[in-house]
């Protein structure tokens, strides 16, 4: 039996008792409500600084710390999830991610802001690996589309909140409005993630086979075996470069627009379009990649991202506000699919049995991308200027697009035993 002959939907329904798409819906809902940690911070930094009576620059490390914690948590979370299932972790994430925003609303010092946002970032990291790998494990036939749905929600879910936050946290509004906004978002995060946790589960081992042979499932690499392939390390460098360029755009676009003297409405429009365009891009290119070469999709997307960043600079320095916003949308549309394309390629190349841990290792590159997009580019802004900093991000993206053309599937591992002797080939857990 070949992979194409398998009715994955019917097999999943036999095990679940309902359509596997309900799992995607639950995962997407969870991703949508935690996305504000990444996409709304650029709109929150100013109000938080005003609330504490400090300069916004004093909070410049918060976003970098968020990225480090969120990305750094992926591997231990993924390793645990591959063995014990998603439910317990997702319940923990509800308390962490929801509590982070509530803690932010009552924080009185900078270190309390760091603590609240970091605890929330840990919750976001848990939700992310749980949600993305739900798609990889249950949808081997539609990895690009279904991982695109989840990661689209992570970006697009924030689009509705950006105007809400900016409208209710202005300098002329009472402090109570600021507190209410953050607490309302925190309660929403807690409720949605908790409900999603009750729905999610992982497939049992061998669910795609008939019980006699699973050869058609393909190679299943452990994380140690994956690290021995050159493809992983090339993808890691690409991931760092693309996430660095995109996170720079996310974290600094409002400040860049303000520095260019563009109207406040332009800055708000750009900030709102970031998650919206990113969400649509993940869904569209994820679905396209199921039908064409994923590496070609990567090459095209990352190259256009780079050109989009060039356009952001060009239109910005020429005071073309509407074109500036359009360029931001284009750049984000083609940046965000990295979070759909990379996990899909990891599933294609290394199998889904250990996909949580495997993709988590690749996703850890977001830590370095976050350091570049936040702290390093902050230093570049001072030394090189805003325009050259954004142009540098564009160059990195184009180089990553060229590197994608070098990728090819790795040779299968030598055997099906765990070479480390640590049980890395333990079957995935079934949280039911």
From TrEMBL:
MF (Gene Ontology): transmembrane transporter activity
Cite the residue spans of the region called Disordered: 410-432
Q: Can you name this protein?
A: MFS transporter, OFA family, oxalate/formate antiporter
Q: Which UniProt keywords apply?
A: Membrane, Transmembrane, Transmembrane helix, Transport
Presence of the UniProt keyword Membrane in the record: yes
Q: GO CC annotation: what is one?
A: membrane
Transmembrane annotation, as ranges = 21-40, 52-69, 89-107, 113-132, 144-165, 177-200, 232-250, 262-285, 297-317, 367-384, 390-407
User: What is the protein's species of origin?
Assistant: Halobacterium jilantaiense
User: In this protein, which residues make up the domain named Major facilitator superfamily (MFS) profile?
Assistant: 22-412
Q: Which domain of life is it from?
A: Archaea
